[in-house]
Amino acid sequence: MRRHRAGRIPLVEATVRPRVLPLKGNTFVTINPADDPAWYASISLLDDDTYEVERRDARQRIHDLTTETDHGHIAKDLTIWLAGRHQREGGVS
User: Fold this and answer.
1) How many degrees, rounded to 5, is the angle at CA 54 between CA 49 and CA 57?
2) pLDDT in tens, 11-58
3) In b/e form, how buried is each residue of 59-70, taking b as 16+ CB within 10 angstroms?
4) Coil, helix or strand for 4?
């Protein structure tokens, strides 16, 4: 991915569909801004070929952990969640 000002990645590029990750050696992806460790999202491939999706935002007291198989649902859900972080931060450069 391209680096952008302040080490941030535009939301479109930050949302990764799990099926595009090569399975060998790539069993998880974590999305978090370099300058705000208070929130992150993580997708992990489990042994049964399902995905564990974790979303945490310490400021909002959010910690969700779900299991999902539908790539489209994961991408849509994370896009909406990441957009919420984007709006609270006043935009992404």
Assistant:
1) 170
2) 444 444 445 555 566 678 888 887 777 899 999 988 888 999 999 998
3) eeeeeeeeeeee
4) coil
Report the predicted TM-score, pTM, of the whole model to 2 decimal places.
Answer: 0.65
Rg (C-alpha) for the chain, rounded Å, is: 13
Instruction: Please report the beta strands in 1-93, taking only residues with DSSP state E, as ranges in sequence order.
Output: 28-31, 39-45, 51-57, 62-68
CA dihedral 77, 34, 39, 11 (to 10 degrees): -20
Q: Domains of the chain: which residue ranges?
A: 5-89
Q: Is 51 helix (H, G, I), strand (E, B) or coil?
A: strand
> CA 77, 24, 3: angle at the middle one, nearest 5?
55
Q: Which of 37, 43, 35 is nearest to 14 (CA)?
A: 43
